[in-house]
Amino acid sequence: MTQAGNGTGFVDLVTAHGVLELSCILVAGAAGLSLGWSIVDPGLRTRRAALQREGKQALLLVLGTAPWLVVAGIVEGNRANLAESGLGAVIGTGVGLGLVFWGLVLWRGRLRRSPSTSPADTP
What we know:
By secondary structure, this protein is mostly helical. It has one domain. The chain has helices at 7-40, 47-77, 79-83, 87-112. Helix 1 packs antiparallel against helix 2 and helix 1 (7-40) packs parallel to helix 4. The chain is elongated and about 55 Å long.
């Protein structure tokens, strides 16, 4: 895009909502991988019990992430208004939303897991 002379337009078009949207996709992928891993390595549980437990965790991840996709959609829908403020506002919005999202993910993730227990060994 940059070599074709469209780098600024691409950043303007994608950055404001793309950082948050791609982050949500990454979390959804991690939820799916955790489901698959519970079948591959169930730990001390049966595969069924491990899958049920990880299924509940994955559902919570997806339900917690879904509202952020709505936020990304609102930002994308109002991109033209944001673009009038300049490229700095677009980049600031994208990076700011990404920082808030990942800060929340890290904060909530620490509350859910204690460092002394392994996820496979926890009942």
